[in-house]
Specification:
The structure holds 2 protein chains of 2 kinds.
Chain A: E1 6-17, E2 20-31, E3 35-39, H1 46-53, E4 61-66, E5 69-70, E6 81-84, H2 96-106, H3 112-122, H4 138-150, E7 156-159, H5 168-183, E8 187-191, H6 195-201, E9 204-209, E10 212-216
Parallel strand pairs in A: 3-8, 3-9, 6-7, 7-8
Antiparallel strand pairs in A: 1-2, 1-4, 4-5, 9-10
Helix pairs in contact in A: 2-3, 2-4
Chain B: H1 2-19, H2 23-40, H3 48-76, H4 80-86, H5 91-121, H6 129-153, H7 160-187, H8 193-220
Helix pairs in contact in B: 1-5, 2-3, 2-5, 3-4, 3-5, 3-6, 3-7, 5-6, 5-8, 6-7, 6-8, 7-8
The chains are: A alpha/beta, B mainly alpha.
């Protein structure tokens, strides 16, 4: 069996803020088609690790590579990436449709309006298309935030607590999306506090504790529970 | 890049049109400053052209800072800045788009203030309209280049507005002085070599600070 291609690679990654060490010599590999959960207590540094992996935050030491090349070295390279955070990163005064069109345009996609409409249809938010993001519920904004980063089909997904704020239907929908993206060959890393979720959805779980990462190997998951799948559309 | 640049400007103008967070306050402050300056100063007709340039550019700077501060502050809402820098676009494109939006705001302000000074203070600023347009453009680019750079630098700070004023005001003194002098010479119908030197200075200032912004913004977008 051939060794899977490493899509995201971190070597001896350390990060400190104002002299306070948050991450210490983290080594990490995520392969094509692998879905990995990241767990850890509040303040353990999960968001910081995701920000370093996304090249939003510069590591104090060590390096991050995407497909074997230094992460974020060029603007074009960021096309490989889809990142969600605690914030929705949506423009509150643009409509849901306009937010998606803007994202598609920034990613240089052709037919941004058509793509936005198709995405809204796929995530079941077509009827809210002309509602401004500030008027939408947290759950809808959360769904749209994820749709926004999927609009250009990136091969790397870094999701910071993506299940937070979603109702049961939303969680089912997201589980379906993760399953679908993994099957499409995407490398997915998502942070969560829910061990059940990580066992159910991820191929393996990484635990961030005392600034270091522990790989809690587990058998490859077969996908989300059957009742969650229809939500994926 | 050109397409993304255009859509960034389009997005900012749409958001401002819907929220009206910066432009009404900017225009109101500019008008108030212009009216107070024009009506309170009892100057002889021959003295007005000598001071009108300085007053016009001070009004532009004070009022324009409101719009400049809002351009970057709007991106701080809901983590939009992080979303923006994660798109496959060069940081320089983001900087140039923000700079363009600020220049548009300053030019809109001047489109109101210049006729106001003509009417209220009786200063013939529009006797050489193309010369005045050139000074307005170069002065606006100079102020906006500094303001956009500092605004990007201060985007994570809570006291962003105060920091912006403290850093921008000293840095733009040369451009305000040059623009005021060039405007005075237009009002005094003197477009000679001295006027041309001020134009060259304004052009050099705009080019230097725009270039500095393009070079530095890449370092400013990371944590």
């Amino acid at each position: 069996m051939s060794r899977p291609t490493s899509v995201i690679q971190a070597r001896r990654l350390s990060k400190s803020f104002h002299g306070r060490l948050v991450l210490l010599e983290i080594d990490l590999d995520i392969a094509t088609g692998e879905c990995v959960a990241l767990t850890g207590n509040n303040g353990a540094g999960k968001t910081t690790l995701l920000r370093c992996l996304a090249a939003i935050a510069r590591p104090t030491a060590g390096e991050v590579r995407w497909f074997g090349r230094p992460a974020g070295a060029s603007a074009e390279q960021r096309r490989l990436l889809g990142v969600t955070a605690h914030e929705s990163r949506l423009y509150p005064n643009l409509t849901l449709r306009e937010n998606l069109i803007f994202a598609a345009r920034m990613c240089g996609m052709s037919g941004p309006a058509r793509r936005a409409d198709a995405t809204l249809e796929r995530i079941g938010l077509s009827r809210f298309a002309d509602r401004q993001a500030r008027q939408a519920s947290k759950g809808i904004r959360q769904r749209l935030a994820l749709a926004r980063v999927l609009v250009h089909d990136p091969p790397i997904l870094l999701l910071d607590e993506p299940f937070c704020g979603l109702d049961a239907a939303g969680r089912g929908w997201l589980a379906g999306v993760l399953h679908e993206r993994r099957n499409a060959g995407c490398a997915v890393l998502f942070s969560t506090h829910d061990e059940g979720q990580s066992r159910q959805l991820a191929d393996r779980t990484l635990s961030l504790h005392a600034k270091t990462l522990t790989d809690l190997r587990q058998p490859v998951a077969s996908g989300p529970p059957e009742e969650d799948l229809p939500q994926a559309a | 890049m050109a397409t993304q640049f255009w859509w960034l400007i389009h997005k900012d103008l749409i958001v401002e049109h819907r929220t009206r967070q910066a432009w009404p306050a900017m225009l109101l402050l500019g008008i108030v400053v212009a009216v107070v300056f024009s009506l309170q100063m009892e100057l002889l007709p021959e003295q007005s052209p000598a001071v009108a340039g300085g007053l016009l550019w001070l009004a532009t700077l004070f009022a324009g800072l409101i719009a400049i501060e809002r351009t970057c502050a709007a991106e701080q809402q809901d983590g939009c800045w992080d979303g923006l820098v994660l798109y496959p676009i060069a940081p320089a494109t983001i900087y140039l788009a923000k700079l363009s939006v600020n220049v548009i705001a300053l030019l809109a302000l001047e489109c109101v203030l210049i006729p106001l000074f003509v009417v209220l203070a009786g200063v013939p600023l529009l006797q050489h309209p193309w010369a005045m347009a050139l000074i307005a453009m170069l002065g606006s680019v100079g102020i906006a280049a500094v303001g956009t750079l500092v605004s990007t630098l201060a985007r994570g700070l809570q006291q962003r507005g105060a920091v912006l004023s403290l850093l921008v005001m000293p840095l733009v003194v040369p451009v305000v002085l040059a623009a005021a002098e060039a405007t005075r010479l237009i009002a005094q119908d003197d477009l000679g070599s001295q006027w041309w030197r001020w134009v060259q200075f304004l052009g050099a200032f705009a080019v230097v600070f725009t270039t500095v912004g393009i070079v530095l913004v890449g370092f400013l977008v990371e944590d």
